[in-house]
């Protein structure tokens, strides 16, 4: 990973968590403590975070604010790996033989794809990384929705993708989000939100995948308001007070 990418990832970790330790950053990024300390010094001098002994925290001006730009696919893969794996295993366990499912383009949904049962399924996705998981062929039929390709995230978006999706039906749709606040789901881009909105409209069961860092966070575009039958799959790190609030909108699986 380039230094600029590493710096952006560290800032995003601070923005998501509020505070983060040197050890946590080193483990997630696979670098030495010394490298992390140098990075934190530079980022502090640039005013992108506030350094303290043993870690760093976000600047007050960025905590809880929506992202201006979406983190890269690689950056998102590095964050909250244990939580995402936990969520993915729970979500994948709900898939049954013969289901037709839509898998969105988040890194958590990619982990769902890796944990799907090895039974006959029809999988529809706009994610090239997910498509590549099944490209060699097995019991699961894979359909890739085309459209305008976004290299930054490895996804297909836009009018062509929306048109293709609007004619299909799904037993289950698995959607990752950039944030959940006041019962609304957020993403960083309008075209991503519009595509996921269509996928949810065309699915009988909605499964929203969000680790603790997405809770009470805004994104650029609100694309869906949670309903009583919706299911949010999350991890035990979410505070009980926020879980109680979330359960007033929808079902929650930990």
Automatic annotation (TrEMBL):
Keywords: Repressor, Transcription, Transcription regulation. SMART domains: DeoRC, HTH_DEOR. PROSITE patterns: HTH_DEOR_2 (PS51000). The keyword Transmembrane helix does not apply. InterPro entries: Carb_Metab_HTH_regulators, DeoR-like_C, DeoR_HTH, NagB/RpiA_transferase-like, WH-like_DNA-bd_sf, WH_DNA-bd_sf. Residues 3-58 form the HTH deoR-type domain. It holds the Pfam family DeoRC. PANTHER family: GLYCEROL-3-PHOSPHATE REGULON REPRESSOR, HTH-TYPE TRANSCRIPTIONAL REGULATOR SRLR-RELATED. Repressor of the lactose catabolism operon. Galactose-6-phosphate is the inducer. This is Lactose phosphotransferase system repressor. It comes from Thermophilibacter gallinarum.
């Amino acid at each position: 990973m380039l230094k600029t990418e590493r710096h952006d990832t560290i800032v995003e970790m601070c923005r998501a968590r509020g505070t983060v330790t040197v050890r946590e950053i080193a483990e997630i990024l696979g670098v030495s403590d010394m490298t992390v300390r140098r990075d934190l010094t530079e980022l502090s001098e640039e005013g992108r975070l506030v350094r303290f002994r043993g870690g760093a925290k976000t600047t007050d001006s960025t905590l809880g604010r929506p992202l201006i730009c979406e983190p890269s696919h690689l950056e998102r893969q590095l964050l909250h790996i244990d939580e995402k794996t936990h969520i993915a295993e729970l979500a994948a366990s709900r898939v049954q033989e013969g289901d037709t499912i839509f898998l969105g383009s988040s890194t958590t949904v990619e982990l769902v794809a890796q944990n799907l049962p090895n039974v006959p399924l029809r999988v529809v996705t706009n994610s090239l990384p997910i498509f590549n998981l099944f490209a060699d062929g097995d019991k699961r039929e894979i359909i890739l929705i085309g459209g305008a390709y976004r290299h930054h995230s490895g996804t297909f978006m836009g009018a062509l993708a929306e048109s293709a999706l609007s004619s299909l039906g799904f037993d289950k749709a698995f959607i990752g989000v950039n944030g959940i606040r006041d019962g609304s789901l957020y993403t960083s881009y309008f075209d991503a939100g519009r595509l996921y909105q269509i996928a949810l409209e065309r699915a009988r069961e909605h499964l929203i995948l969000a680790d603790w860092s997405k809770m009470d966070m805004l994104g650029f575009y609100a694309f869906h308001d949670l309903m009583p039958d919706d299911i949010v799959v999350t991890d035990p790190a979410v505070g009980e007070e926020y879980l109680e609030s979330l359960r007033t909108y929808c079902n929650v699986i930990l």
